[in-house]
Write a structure and sequence with these properties.
Layout: E1 3-13, E2 21-30, E3 35-40, H1 45-49, E4 53-56, E5 61-64, E6 66-71, H2 87-97, H3 102-119, E7 122-127, H4 134-143, E8 151-154, E9 158-160, E10 172-174, H5 178-190, E11 196-199, H6 220-232, E12 237-241, H7 244-253, E13 257-260, H8 266-273, E14 284-287, H9 293-297, H10 300-303, H11 307-329, E15 334-336, H12 350-361, H13 365-379, E16 397-400, E17 414-419, E18 422-424, H14 433-440
Parallel strand pairs: 1-4, 1-5, 6-7, 7-8, 9-10, 11-12, 12-13, 13-14, 14-15
Antiparallel strand pairs: 1-2, 2-3, 5-16, 16-17, 17-18
Helix pairs in contact: 3-4, 5-6, 6-7, 7-8, 12-13
Length: about 450
């Protein structure tokens, strides 16, 4: 098999939790898009010379592509238009996207957001809740090589109860019984979904009263039926859950990943470690902070957040931070997601999510990088596919001009991206200066 690309003289970040860096390494990429070999540049010199293309990485750092375990392709991360917060208008917009005229526009719009993820260094992401089936379609096209896109897992529309998170806005399939839950799973799977997302509790963005965010919504019986149906097809279930009771109910039902999370009790910790109803016998926490932190820590005159949204965000953020600390203390499997598309979570800002994890919870930079590579691959069941710079895995690689272990902002300066062996020489992302300026105030 021919060597198509050789990345030479690189400092390779292994992204283990110890922050191991291997100096003067060469990474060889095979014609099938996999990593052929990794070793000292001296030992691999002849093979590198024979490669179809060489990329000199002297003085640079090479690491695995980022994995965003919680994305959406709904919006660009700027403040959402007020129309989308009006139930009637939102349902009308969502209805249009599902028409023969709207679907092509929706798909191209979503593809632009997926491109923004990739060009910022995210070579794999899990999409957890969309308008229709656009992420599923894009995932198929990317996998088949119709376009050079990221590896994608997609859930299709989220599942929620009547009046639940996203339901009034037309963003969720409504389920109000165990059998309706099973039917909704079957519908999403038939359309090609490779993950399932449920709203176990209320959310911040569409909360109408103080305390609604995090309040349990879906019953344990409903969630159990959903998990059983998804697991029978070998598909993981993710639950939006932002309170201890919501997290506990979700874990008891067999949910595989808790999105956002909350402070943990001993019972919750035990269920993360040993969850007999989950697909793999354990569950994981997918930490997300960036979507909530600006609503709490930035003046509402700048964010435009209402008092109810701001107060709900404060309650949820404090509990999420404690939950992450509990996960670190108790060695719960801890991944990371950007919740991209949400207000102040633009698709290019994965490094900011990691920066918040480090500054707010005490997670080390090494463990933050591990979370967004190796651990997220394990959580998504992709550890034999991607997540590390190792022979046999997909060549999903980033070339950086600085070491992110010194400052995670180095991830903003991706110079070259390799995804499935395809090289992107000049990755470009449209950044929002006003949003970045606001988010810079969160750095500590």
């Amino acid at each position: 098999m021919a060597t198509t690309v050789a990345l030479t003289s690189a400092n390779v970040l292994t992204c283990d939790r110890h922050g191991t860096v291997l100096a003067d390494q060469t990474v060889l990429v095979a014609e099938d898009g996999s990593i052929e070999a990794v070793g000292s540049s001296q030992e691999l010199a002849d093979r590198a010379t024979a490669a179809q293309r060489r990329i000199d990485c002297a003085g640079k750092w090479v690491m695995p592509g980022l994995i965003n375990a919680h994305a959406h392709l709904l919006a660009n991360g700027r403040p959402l238009p007020k129309a989308l917060m009006n139930p009637a208008l939102s349902r009308g917009i969502v209805g249009f996207w599902k028409t023969p005229f709207g679907r092509p526009m929706l798909r191209e719009r979503a593809r632009a957001f997926a491109d923004a993820e990739l060009n910022s260094g995210v070579t794999t992401f899990r999409s957890l809740g969309e308008y229709d089936n656009e992420a599923v379609t894009l995932a198929r096209e990317s996998e088949s090589g119709q376009w050079v896109g990221p590896r994608m897992m997609a859930s299709g529309p989220m599942l929620a109860i009547t009046g639940g998170h996203g339901a009034d806005l037309g963003l969720s399939r409504v389920v109000d019984s165990p059998w309706e839950g099973r039917k909704a799973v079957r519908q999403n799977l038939r359309l090609g979904a490779t993950s399932i997302k449920i709203a176990a509790t209320g959310g911040v963005t569409d909360a109408k009263a103080l305390g609604e965010a995090g309040r349990p919504q879906m019953t344990t019986e409903e969630m159990t039926a959903i998990c059983e149906e998804a697991h029978s097809a070998g598909v993981l279930v993710a639950a939006h859950a932002q309170s201890p009771e919501g997290v506990l109910r979700s874990l008891k039902a067999g949910v595989d990943t808790i999105e956002h999370g909350s402070a943990m009790t001993d019972e919750i910790v035990e269920l993360f470690h040993d969850n007999p109803k989950s697909l793999r016998g354990w569950s994981a926490l997918d930490a997300t902070l960036l979507a909530a932190a600006p609503l709490v820590e930035v003046d509402s005159k700048m964010t435009g957040a209402s008092e109810i949204v701001q107060q709900n965000a404060r309650i949820v953020l404090d509990s999420m931070v404690q939950g992450i600390r509990d996960a670190i203390t108790n060695d719960v499997v801890l991944g990371s997601g950007l919740d991209s598309s949400m207000t102040f979570s633009p698709h290019y800002a994965m490094w900011r999510e990691l920066d918040l994890l480090v500054s707010r919870t005490g997670l080390s930079p090494a463990r933050a990088l591990e979370a967004v590579t190796r651990v997220n691959a394990k959580i998504l069941g992709l550890e034999s596919v991607t997540g590390a710079v190792e022979p046999g895995l997909s060549a999903d690689l980033l070339v950086l001009g600085a070491n992110p272990l010194d400052d995670l902002k180095a991830l903003e300066g991706v110079e070259t991206i390799v995804v499935r062996g395809n090289v992107i020489d000049t990755p470009t992302v449209e950044r929002f200066g006003d949003i970045d300026e606001l988010l810079d105030t969160l750095r500590r």
